[in-house]
Every structure is written in structure tokens, then in C-alpha cells.
Design brief:
GO terms for molecular function: ATP binding; kinase activity. This is Phosphoenolpyruvate synthase. It holds the Pfam family PEP-utilizers. This protein is α+β, with helices and mostly antiparallel strands. It folds into six domains: 195 residues, ATP-grasp fold, A domain (Dna Ligase, domain 1), CATH 3.30.1490; 105 residues, 2-Layer Sandwich (D-amino Acid Aminotransferase, Chain A, domain 1), CATH 3.30.470.20; 99 residues, no CATH class; 125 residues, no CATH class; 33 residues; 111 residues, Phosphohistidine domain (Glucose Oxidase, domain 1, 3-Layer(bba) Sandwich). It is built from 25 helices and 25 strands. The strands form five sheets. It has an eight-stranded mixed sheet. The chain has a six-stranded antiparallel sheet with strand order 9-8-7-6-10-11. The radius of gyration is 31 Å and the shape is globular.
Length: 882
């Protein structure tokens, strides 16, 4: 074939060679092949081994040549140049005239005829008819689908294919298509169309499957609509289908709607329904995101006609408001969550949060509902329940609460506001007494708790790394996962809950004296904060390397992979012994801290080597001790400003000293709360390291005992399913079935980016933001401003593109990214709140930070010059990317 035509089944580099049929198969999103949304998708499905009707694409090259051959291109471009909402009717007329009577160049017509002849000769096709389908480059995208906008022609005879192709091309300029472009601000490209010619499936039954329920939002429900015969009337909405809803996770099926033209109860037999459900779920697993699939059944085979992303989801069936706030930057919702990891979070979250809310008298037992759940492979927490608890406090403003967390605001004004009244005063008095007791108890117990957790960590690590029988491995795994984890994570979560309540109150009181910027200055520069210790060690090591010419030359001249290999072999040269000591001290960290499936530093040395090399390139102007001195001075200046405001000299006496002393104590208390949160988070990270070590060994044992097929199957079992198996209350067959089902769920959403807030209250609701022309708005979380180059990093794999002095623009950060903050001049994140990881680390480094900047990774071009204003939360794009 020439560039004018392309076989849909031609091999494509990088595409999967087999469908996702087993737990190991996982293909990522398909890159564009230049065949339009439909063509790219079908080519990818063919490459993956799915049953797709044979065919070829008439490419944009061929269609442009047709227009140019007829001398119509200039007229088309001129008409499109005048397109706006007012000129739309006349532009449609002009385009129709410009494209009327097109004739094929002789050489292209000959090649098209040959392609049709060859397609008719494909085994099993014989003299069959054809389906001619538009495949625009703009359709079936992640944001806009253009569903139903372009033309599809069925039952086309061979002699009519050439005319049908041009008819499909003209649909690029239909009035409703141009209107769609204008409504969504998408430019019209006259070359943005290919046309597919395929063997027509003489369907017995046709239909469409949504692999998640697009109305209720239920993520394991397949919605299958089917009609007898060809499906074009179904897609166009001209017939009433029979609808089936199947929860593939639970294997339940219901016929939701029927119609008079299906008197027998539906066009699909049970076997056909099973086949359709199976193939559509495999398509979802192949892509890793929800899709709608057009299919047809002929000769007892399910044949795929189209698969595209579902671009709009409703949540009418999900009670309450749910959010990933604070779960993104902590890691558990940073990406699709392994079933094992979710089961750990579910274990502690469903226990400790209700306990705290009840012990604090913030909620009555009857007001409690489920507080955590998994949607679309991500962990969410129940925002409705927590808001109900926070409403107890007089002065509560829903908008302030949502803004601090970075939650999407879908209402005007302040939302729910709690005013002072006799009723609220009586309730809050009870809460205050409970809270005072809770905080006092934690303040007194914190040092002892820290000693306990660190001591237990050292003891368990020694046990886990020693030789052990299979029975010992199982016993130690249970101890670490069931008993120790509940204790360690409970201590951490209890501190988080305390902080959530009291930091909000302290923030308002402090900001009322020194303003928002002053508040940020006063909570920055925490002493010996845990998440910066690896960088301090890396800094000290690299200063020694810079003073050692031989070692410095080796580190700078050796490939990072060779450095890792030298560490793995135990080499002590070139100060590798010091690097090894650093790994021994911080081996429990990883670049994905709360993801037990991801190797920690002790198993994967590459992040540590990268940290050392990054830090080695920094001159002494980046000395963290100098940063701390600067932050300490800024804090002292802010305290002095507060004292000047609160203390006045009246008649030779200082008035207000007690007010200032109370203010200073509040600042100290706030800093202590923040420090303890980070310290107990570090203990939590250590516990996850123990869980990983114990679970890896358990997986190896269960494979050796032929219980699991692969060692990593352990991550696809829920923790308490493993406990049930070890107890003998679950069979090995049932455990394997659970693993298989959980893998299917994990695969289904591994490339999906669900909304941060879901639930019926967010169903179709948009973000309500103040208007600032030309600005991307977020929450100012660290003082200062900076102008520099934006580096848009969408994931950990791209972090190597970040250069010194640039401004990091990303979705969220993880604690494993901390060392990168020494390189950059500012941070902008799409998610998070004022106490999230990015905000906390930015304050420690003294760089501007804006979080919860909705759409920042798409609205800010990579490489653009931007101005980040920390106090106001505004980001101004000064120049386009390069």
C-alpha cells in the first residue's frame, strides 16, 4: 500500500500482540497512528488479537489529494477562515458547494478499487458488502468523543465504495459538526479525517456496551444495550434496545428495559450475554480505562466495530460526597491502588476514623456511615461524613474547609455555615472538653509512642531479614500486617485527625494577627523534620565527595546504572560505603511511599543514586542549613511583627503581653502538631516497608506451595483473604479466584484518571472559581513569588526532565520526590491543600508553592515562562511553551 491507504491489520510497533486474557497482559493507552479515533482504536484492537472485521483506511493524504486534484482546497480554507457562530449557516452552504462533485484522481481510484477487490477476496468475505465509516482525528478522545457526529454508511456495494468514502469525508463539514467544534473551541482541520472501509458484519444481534455504568457511576457494572440485526439504528437512537446491567464483579444480571419489538425478552441468549460481557471487559482491561464498545454477533462470534473512552460519567448511584483529597500526595490514591494496599487502608480507616469522631463527640453513632471506599481503582474518603462532624464547630465555613483540602467547590457563596447559638454552643462545649483531653493525652504520650514504634520496627526488621521456615514466614507476616500495622497506622491517623481539627482553628487565629503569608512563615522551617533527613544526608555525603577529587571524578564520570551495579556487588570504593550506609538508614523509603507493591530504596538503589547525583550538582548556595537560617530569621521577623501589633506601651507599661504570650504558645503548638504528624508518618512509612518485606516472602512461600501462580499475586489478594487462607477458612481455589477477579479490576483502571470528587452531589457539577482573566488559580501554600520556566511533569517517569531552577508543574507530589525540591524554584500542583506534601516541603525549602490549581497541567504549556505568586495562589502564563 502507498501512503494513501493503510491496512488496519498491518503490524504496528509497540502495540500488544495478544489480547488481555490473563493476569500478566497489560497494554497501555494506544498512541495515535494517524487513522483517526475509530481507526487508531480498531488497529490497536486487531494488533491485540481481538476479532475486528478486516478492512483498510483511506488516509488523510489520499483525501487531501482528492480535494487538491479538484482545485477546491483554497475554497475550503477560505470558508473555514470565516467560521464563527454568526456565519455558520453561510459557511455550511459554501463548504457544500466547494465539495460537491468531487472526482478521484485516476491513480488513487485505481488503488482504491484494488484495495476493495483484495478485501472482497479475504477468506470468508467473498462477494460481501462493505461498511464505510468516518474516522476523524478529533473523535474518541479522552475529553471529547464527537460521538455520532460523523457519517457511517452500511450495506455498500463494491462499486459504490469510492462515492461513499467522499460522502463520509464531507461529514467533516456538516452543520452539526461545525457547531460542535464552535461549542467546544476546537479548530476545524480540513485534513483531520480518514475513512475506514471494512467488511460488513451481517449481524444477528448488534449492540453497545459501557464497561462502567455511565449514569450511576458504579464501576463494576457493564451496561449492555442490544437489538436484533444491524446496530446503526441503535447508535443513532432510532430504536429502543433491550438493556442488560451486569455487575461482573458479582456476576449478577438484570434486564432493565424492554421494548415491544423484543417480545421474547431480549435478543441475547445467556451464552451470548456471557460472551459479550467477557470480550468487553477484556477490551477495558486492554486499555486500562472505561470504554464504550460497539459490537456485532455473527456466526456465534462477537466482532468489535469500535471502542472509545467514556468521556463523561455520572454518579447518581453513589451516595454522599467522596474525595481523594490528601490521599493523592500521600500516595495511596496517586495511581490505581493494588487490592492488597486498599485492604490495608480499609482496615485502619474504617476503625480509627469512626473511633475518633465518636470519642470526640463530633458525631452520634447513628450519623456514621462507611468512611472509605474504592472507586475506579482509587481510594476515596467520605467527605459528607467528615463535613457533618466539622459542622459542629461555630464559625465553620464549608468553602474554607473545601478550599484548604483542595476539594472541588460546586456551590456559590460559603456553602454550609455554622453560626453561634445556644444549641451549637452547648454542643461545642462538649466537643471542646473531649478534644482537650484527646490532645493532652497525645501530647503526653507522643515521645513514648515514637520510642515504641521505632523499637518495634528495628526488632521486626531483624526478624524478617533472617532465615525462616515457611511457618515462621506466615506467622511473622500475620504479626506485621494484622497486629503491628493496626497499632502503627492508628497512631499516625490519630495524629492526622487531631491536626485536621486543631490546625484549622490555629491557622485562623494566627492569620488574624499576621495574615496568611505570616502564618506560612511561622509554620515553615520545622526542626529536624523527618522527610528532609535523606536530603541532609545526601548533602553531607556530596560535600565529602566534592572534597575528594578521585571519588568526585568517578561519580561524575560513571553511568548511574554502573553505580547501582557497584552498590549491588558490595563495592566499598569511591565512598560507596557511605552511600550504602545512607541506603541502610533510609532503605524503608521509596519514590512511592504508600505503595507496598513498589520496591523500596533497599531493593532499588536507583532513586538513591539519582538523589546523590542531583545533589552533587548543587553548589553551596543550596546548602539546606542556610535555608534553615533564612527561614528561622523570617519566623523571628514575623513573631516580632506580631508582638508589635499585640503589645502596646500605655502610660509607661506594656499592655498585651499575655495576648502575645498566648499567640506565641499557639504558634509553638501548631509547629509541634506539624512535626509530630511528619514523625508518625515516618513511622507509618517504616511499617509499610516491613509489610512489603514480609509480603514478598509470603508470596514466595505460597508459590512454592502451589497456592499462588506468581509471587506478585500476593498484591492482588486482600490482606484478610490471605489471613482467611492461612486460617483454613478459605480454600486455595477461592483465593486464586479472588486474585484473578481483583487483577481484572486493577487492570481495568490502571490508565484511568478519575475525578478527585465523586458522588451524586458532584454529578455533572463544574468547579466554581473566582474569575481572574489570564490566570490559573489555586491555593497559595508557601510565601514568595518567582518567574521561571514551567516544566510540566505528569508522572514519576518524567521526573528526569526537570532541570535546576525550573518551576515544577504537576498533578501532585509524593514524599519520595523530596530531594527534587532542592533543584527547583517553585511548585504548582493540580491537587492538594495547604498541608499537603508539596506545600509542606516547599515551605521547608522556602520556595513559592500553589496547590489545587485546577487544570494546571493542561492550561500551562510545558516550557512556558510563568509567574507564580505564592500568597495569592495565582499563576500567570507569560509566554507559550517551546
Amino acid at each position: 500500500m502507498t501512503a494513501a491507504f493503510r491496512d488496519l491489520g498491518a503490524p504496528v510497533a509497540g502495540l500488544a500482540a495478544a489480547p488481555v486474557a490473563g493476569p500478566a497482559a497489560a497494554a497501555g493507552p494506544v498512541g495515535t497512528l494517524g487513522l483517526g479515533g475509530k481507526g487508531d482504536s480498531l488497529a490497536a484492537l486487531i494488533a491485540a488479537g481481538f476479532d475486528v472485521p478486516a478492512g483498510f483506511a483511506v488516509t488523510t493524504t489520499a483525501l487531501r489529494q482528492v480535494v487538491e486534484h479538484n482545485g477546491r482546497r483554497e475554497a475550503v480554507l477560505a470558508a473555514l477562515g470565516r467560521l464563527d457562530p454568526h456565519t455558520l449557516p453561510e459557511v455550511v452552504v459554501d463548504l457544500a458547494a466547494a465539495l460537491d462533485g468531487l472526482e478521484w484522481p485516476a491513480h488513487l481510484l485505481a488503488e482504491l478499487t484494488e484495495q476493495v477487490r483484495e478485501l472482497r477476496g479475504v477468506q470468508g468475505v467473498g462477494g460481501g458488502r462493505f461498511a464505510v465509516r468516518s474516522s476523524a482525528l478529533a473523535e474518541d478522545g479522552a475529553a471529547l468523543s464527537f460521538a455520532g457526529q460523523y457519517r457511517t454508511l452500511l450495506e455498500i456495494e463494491a462499486d459504490d465504495v469510492a462515492a461513499a468514502v467522499l460522502d463520509c469525508y464531507r461529514s467533516l463539514f456538516d452543520a452539526h459538526v461545525l457547531h460542535y467544534h464552535l461549542d467546544h473551541g476546537v479548530p476545524v482541520d480540513p485534513d483531520a479525517m480518514t475513512v475506514l472501509v471494512q467488511h460488513l458484519v451481517e449481524a444477528e444481534v448488534s449492540g453497545v456496551t459501557f464497561t462502567v455504568n455511565p449514569v450511576t457511576g458504579h464501576d463494576t457494572e457493564l451496561v449492555i444495550e442490544a437489538v436484533r440485526g444491524l446496530g446503526e439504528d441503535l447508535v443513532a437512537g432510532r430504536v429502543r434496545p433491550v438493556r442488560y446491567v451486569r455487575d461482573w464483579f458479582g456476576r449478577t444480571t438484570a434486564t432493565i428495559a424492554s421494548a415491544a419489538d423484543h417480545p421474547a425478552g431480549g435478543p441475547l441468549s445467556d451464552a451470548q450475554l456471557d460472551a459479550v460481557a467477557d470480550v468487553c471487559l477484556r477490551v477495558q482491561r486492554h486499555y486500562g480505562f472505561p470504554v464504550d464498545v460497539e459490537w456485532a454477533i455473527a456466526d456465534d462470534a462477537v466482532r468489535l466495530l469500535q471502542a472509545r473512552p467514556i468521556t463523561r460519567l455520572g454518579y447518581a448511584g453513589i451516595r454522599d460526597q467522596w474525595t481523594t483529597a490528601n490521599f493523592k500526595d500521600s500516595g495511596v490514591s496517586a495511581t490505581v491502588c493494588a487490592p492488597f494496599m486498599w485492604s490495608l487502608y480499609e482496615y485502619v480507616w474504617e476503625d480509627w476514623l469512626p473511633t475518633y469522631l465518636l470519642d470526640s463527640a463530633l458525631l452520634h453513632p447513628r450519623e456514621l456511615r462507611r468512611v472509605g471506599d474504592l472507586f475506579y481503582g482509587r481510594v476515596y474518603w467520605n467527605l459528607s461524613v467528615v463535613k457533618r462532624a466539622m459542622e459542629v464547630a461555630p464559625g465553620y465555613r464549608e468553602r474554607a474547609f473545601d478550599a484548604e483540602l483542595g476539594v472541588k467547590i460546586t456551590y456559590a457563596g460559603n456553602g454550609t455555615v455554622t453560626k453561634l447559638s445556644p444549641r451549637t454552643l452547648a454542643r461545642v462545649a462538649k466537643v471542646a472538653l473531649r478534644q482537650r483531653a484527646i490532645v493532652a493525652a497525645r501530647r503526653a504520650a507522643a515521645p513514648e509512642l515514637l520510642t515504641e514504634l521505632l523499637g518495634r520496627y528495628d526488632a521486626r526488621l531483624a526478624e524478617l531479614t533472617g532465615a525462616a521456615s515457611a511457618a515462621d514466614v506466615k506467622s511473622r507476616w500475620r504479626q506485621v500486617v494484622v497486629t503491628d500495622y493496626h497499632r502503627s497506622e492508628g497512631v499516625y491517623f490519630w495524629q492526622v485527625f487531631i491536626n485536621q481539627v486543631h490546625l484549622a482553628l490555629d491557622r485562623d487565629a494566627i492569620a488574624s494577627v499576621v495574615g496568611h503569608d505570616g502564618y506560612l512563615d511561622l509554620i515553615a522551617g520545622l526542626d529536624d523534620v523527618s522527610h528532609l533527613r535523606p536530603f541532609y544526608d545526601a548533602w553531607a555525603l556530596t560535600r565529602r565527595l566534592r572534597a575528594d577529587p578521585d571519588a568526585l571524578a568517578w561519580w561524575r564520570g560513571t553511568d548511574p546504572d554502573e553505580i547501582v551495579a557497584a552498590l549491588d556487588t558490595g563495592s566499598l570504593e569511591h565512598r560507596l560505603d557511605e552511600a550504602r550506609a545512607m541506603i541502610d538508614r533510609f532503605g524503608y523509603h521509596s519514590v512511592r511511599e504508600i505503595d507496598v507493591t513498589h520496591p523500596d530504596f533497599d531493593a532499588d538503589h536507583r532513586p538513591v543514586v539519582a538523589m546523590i547525583l542531583d545533589t552533587l550538582g548543587l553548589d553551596d548556595g543550596h546548602d539546606p542549613h542556610a535555608d534553615r537560617h533564612r527561614l528561622t530569621q523570617r519566623r523571628a521577623d514575623t513573631l516580632a511583627r506580631a508582638r508589635a501589633r499585640l503589645v502596646r506601651r500605655v502610660a509607661g507599661r506594656e499592655v498585651g503581653r499575655h495576648r502575645y504570650a498566648a499567640f506565641a504558645r499557639r504558634v509553638t503548638r501548631t509547629r509541634q502538631l506539624l512535626w509530630w504528624r511528619e514523625e508518625f508518618r515516618d513511622c507509618s512509612t517504616r511499617q509499610y516497608h516491613l509489610i512489603r518485606v514480609a509480603s514478598v516472602r509470603l508470596g514466595e512461600v505460597l508459590v512454592a506451595e502451589s497456592v499462588l501462580e506468581r509471587a506478585d499475586d500476593v498484591w492482588y489478594a486482600k490482606a484478610f483473604d490471605l489471613v482467611a487462607f492461612l486460617d483454613g477458612s478459605m480454600s486455595a481455589d477461592e483465593l486464586r479466584r479472588q486474585v484473578s477477579r481483583n487483577r481484572a479490576y486493577y487492570d481495568s483502571f490502571r490508565n484511568h484518571a478519575p475525578e478527585n470528587e465523586i458522588g451524586h452531589a458532584f454529578d455533572g457539577a463544574g468547579q466554581v472559581l473566582p474569575e481572574t482573566p489570564g490566570a490559573v488559580l489555586g491555593i497559595g501554600s508557601s510565601t514568595g513569588s518567582v518567574t521561571g520556566t514551567a516544566r510540566v511533569i505528569t508522572g514519576l517517569a518524567d521526573i528526569g526532565r526537570l532541570n535546576p531552577g525550573e518551576i515544577l508543574v504537576t498533578t501532585f507530589t509524593d514524599t519520595g520526590w523530596a530531594s527534587k525540591f532542592a533543584l527547583i524554584s517553585g511548585v504548582v500542583t493540580e491537587y492538594g491543600g495547604i498541608l499537603c506534601h508539596a506545600a509542606t516541603i516547599s515551605r521547608e525549602y522556602g520556595i513559592p508553592c500553589v496547590v489545587a490549581a485546577t487544570g494546571c497541567t493542561t492550561r500551562i504549556p510545558d516550557g512556558a515562562t510563568i509567574h507564580v505568586d505564592g500568597p495569592s495562589g495565582q499563576i500567570i502564563v507569560l509566554s507559550e511553551g517551546r
